[in-house]
Amino acid sequence: IERAITKRTKAIMPVHLYGNPCDMESVLKIARKHNLFVVEDACQAHGASQNGRKTGTLGDLGAFSFYPTKNLGCYGDGGMVITNKKDISDKVKLLRNYGQPSRYDSHIKGINSRLDEIQAAILRVKLRYLEQFNERRRKIANLYKKYLEGIKEITPPSRERGARHVFHLYVIRCKNRDRLKKFLSRKGIETQIHYPIPLHLQKAFRYLRYRKGDLKVTEDSARQILSLPLFPGLEEREVKRICRYIR
């Protein structure tokens, strides 16, 4: 991270990918040293924590997604930004509502990003079950780890010390990923790739002038990652079946 900081850098955005908390202690140390904001992408990490502190509360602000497939999802699109800094809170409130502090009075350019009341009501009910569902996800992840143990071609998800993973996704690495994905599909087991094209190779970011091979670790990961089925209703016999076919 520190090598990437320039005079133009304003913030560091750690991504708690797949529900696995980043090493926030190190990130915050670097941010303080260089006087930078820390914006946590906690969109896949509802309820995750590091050393007892919840993701999204460690930096200057945290962003969550309530897309239906998330650990805490509504029945449409939605999201939330949290912060304990009043100036940031006031700015976010302006941005979400056309830049208006009061009706028909725009102070800055904003957007329409208000959460519908019906979605908020759904989330309020589902929030009660978040920890229960997260715990079930952890149990399923442990089953995968148990039944995939000893397969040299498979690398299971890592878990940082002091981190409480919530396994939004269970993502393995396999050098023969595409072959495995096709085989599992023939057996009626759906898998996904999150995500096939790294950001630096997306057409939208061509202006940054990255080329294939510039970020080798990222590109290797994109060629090898595979998301196995994981949701609270998945049963142990189903996990066993998936792992049996992988073997």
UniProtKB/TrEMBL annotation:
Gene3D superfamilies: Aspartate Aminotransferase, domain 1, Type I PLP-dependent aspartate aminotransferase-like (Major domain)
Family that this chain belongs to: Belongs to the DegT/DnrJ/EryC1 family.
CDD domains in UniProt: AHBA_syn
Stretches that traverse the bilayer: none
Keywords in alphabetical order: Pyridoxal phosphate
Protein known as: Erythromycin biosynthesis sensory transduction protein eryC1
Molecular-function annotations in GO: pyridoxal phosphate binding; transaminase activity
GO BP term, example: polysaccharide biosynthetic process
